[in-house]
Amino acid sequence: xxxxxxxxxxxxxxxxxxxxxxxxxxxxxxxxxxxxxxxxxxxxxxxxxxxxxxxxxxxxxxxxxxxxxxxxxxxxxxxxxxxxxxxxxxxxxxxxxxxxxxxxxxxxxxxxxxxxxxxxxxxxxxxxxxxxxxxxxxxxxxxxxxxxxxxxxxxxxxxxxxxxxxxxxxxxxxxxxxxxxxxxxxxxxxxxxxxxxxxxxxxxxxxxxxxxxxxxxxxxxxxxxxxxxxxxxxxxxxxxxxxxxxxxxxxx
Length: 252
Prior knowledge:
Helices cover 33% and strands 26% of the residues.
């Protein structure tokens, strides 16, 4: 079963390869996935004036009264702010509260968990290039940061997630909050992790840190890293076993 919808501002594709799950169960699980993503967008998008995030930012929603899942998101944001020495921060001066660096991976992982609870064991959920998988193995391409029609490498995933932060789609949009300026040391940074919640947040936070973020990401639990810097060097951890990685340099 395959389905593609535009949710949260990007295309989301779902592929289910599980012959043991009846078609009606697959369709119901897919409905739940996209419904969950639409709900997350409505509640946590800073671009919607009526979202809980926007209402909290305007002071219309008391911080002590936010729902448990929004509190979880805010706690994750604070964790990565502290872990990066302030490089990753969802409250930049002159800007509103923007937890998108955490919300996307969290929301897509939560949607993937609905598939698992429905008994689906083989699936690939791709949200704008950030992917969570089960079953397989699945072959996931990592886009070349300078050539849209080329890949840097291809990774094999069974149960896990891969996320990339880069400059090629939205320009220099990731800010190092320590300086207030865009982070420009890297062209792209990809993280493999057990969940997309972790992979996406670590990729974004590490990219904000610049060169030092590559080493920092490599120290995060169960994370493997693949990065391309502005000198076109590939930096990767030993456990990032992708196809056709060349040239390469190990992360110190």
